[in-house]
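Submission sheet (multi-component)
Chains listed below:
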Amino acid sequence: MKSGLFIATAALYGIACVLYLALLTRGSASMRRLPGIVFVSALGAHLAFLTLEGPPPGDIPLADIAQILSISSFGIGIAFLLASYRFDVTVLGAFVVPIALMLFLASGLGSSYAPVPPRVESAVLTLHIGANVLGLIAFALAFGAGVAYVLQERLLRRRQLSGLFQRLPSLDVLDTMGLRAVLTGFPLLTFGMVTGTFWLLRANGAEFYVSQMLGLLAWAIFAAVLVLRVAAGWQGRKAALGTIMGFVCTLLVLAGYVVRAAGGNA
Amino acid sequence: MRDFVVVGLSHRTAPVEVRERLAVAPEQLEEELREIVARGHFDEALLISTCNRVELYGVSMNPTAAAQSARNTLASRLPNSTSEDVFYSERGVAVVRHAFRVASSLDSLVVGEPQILGQVKEAFDAATNAGTAGTLIGRCFSHAFSTAKRVRNETGIAEGTVSVSSIACELARKIFGNLDGRRTLLLGAGEMGEGAARNLRQTGTQLHVINRSEARAEALAKSCGGRAIPYERLTTELAEADVVIASTASTKFILTPELMKGVVRSRRHRPLFIIDIAVPRDVDPRIGTMDNVFVYDVDDLQQVAEQNLAVRAREAAQAERIIEEEVESFLKWRRSLELAPTIVALRKQFGDVADEELRRALGRLQGLSQSDRAAFEAMARSLVNKLLHRPMMHLKAGAEEPDGAQLIDAVRRVFALTEHDDAEGKTSIEADANVRQLTAVTAPGRTGESK
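Outcome: structure written.
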């Protein structure tokens, strides 16, 4: 049975999602601050949940996939708050907060996922997971900016300039935010890939084959986005689409782990 | 009874040739106001003079005569051939409503435009400085400002830009974010292009001007604060600009896909916003499908303007409801303002009669003890209170009604009460408190002396 705190956190995330969507689609001036307030309280509840129901202090809370998902969701929330403060992109909550909600819900799906792999104490594995969680957080923001970019560009081309177009940030802001987030996430992902491979070789198992391939694909996509941005001056819609695809791949990798962990338990 | 008057003309009634003849320069406003009040018809006056309207708001004991004199003064500045129809005038509540609508930009040429509120505020400051804004004008216009704020906050009347050149600016901002340090390239010397370029220049972009005639380019660059560039450098300039405004008189496309392919490559796919204001068009529409190139022509911009105007028209209906609410709230204040001195005067009149009669009676009744005299005095006071109790209650209740001012006026006339201007200097809160206090005293239960 899930604790009341879990349900409360999930409910608050859910309400925040709805409010951010309403802010994006309706955007009445009177409710500008409301989604943020609800979202911060969701993060507060989440923090309480992590503190009260997570591993004892001193342990890194990355021991199983549930904890990884929960920490990722929390991290995305915090990163989004910082980004919306820095770039004034509150409406992007409509794209980013659902991801936080989804990860948080997934963290509680199976009541007890199997602890990910054996030898979780291994420092290499902790580094691998830590780097990838941080990378995921950065890519989630890049994803939000990318979706908004594609949407905004479409509205601009179709000359639909009322409402939604007015509320979304400028293309330049979205593009810059996407670029910075990918620039942050990519080294982390690379580091995560290297440590992961290193650990896998030592563990001598080739069982994570699909996840490995997807991870590699995600890495390749982000690498391509960055190289094309820097070398060929690629920007705008194509870069945004690439970022979205890369993020979807990373999510699939994570989903692979979730399925494995849940399956392993069954 | 003192009442509001407005006489004026606006874009609705008069063409620009007439309006500009009556316009009063901001620095002459105060002097003009003092002269108007000195002529004697107006107790208070305020003059709004913008390029779209010239209006004199006033308060007068004799509104009809005041309106006529104001009309004559204004008409004397126009050529004889001008029809009297260019003027409109209003009295009473209609003036308050008009002031609220003007300040809220509901009466503007472009409904919802933001400048008018600032202009009305300047007019109000001038009247305050000239000492011609008294209680009524002062209260009416500060109420107009809060109404305008409410309209702005609660309706979408000011949302969406409605002029072609500011729409171009807004779009540029939605593409490039901050426009500071970006570069605008003005191609050709069309009038509309110049307007858009000026607008963009004000947002902090650099401006480069290219024209077939270099002399024209020089002149234009000078007047807009830009730089003239020789026509041969078109391709380089296209590669470096962020916004291009095309408004040449050319009958053929100047920006062709062939030209732009190279340009896009050399700008390394940086976004480019092209505004084609020229008719016939300067920009091949196929360019609009290129990645990171956004092309808007004059029809697109016009369409946006019309959509935004339609939204504003819808919101204006909502705004009118707010105006009515606020007019009603103002009238309530106005009535309370008149109610207090009326009650004071009425009580004074009755009290004076009672005192006079008491004095006479006591003069005839010799040898009364102290307590007997006190009983007589109490009786006189109680009589006044009881006689006035019902009329006061009805007067107070009736004053709350929409036609309350008439009731107050009727009472003043029936009892031949004179104006007590001193009470009008008080704020509404004081006046309200006055009313409460006075009516409380007249309640029979409170007059302990009668028991």
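Remark: Chain B has 16 helices and ten strands.
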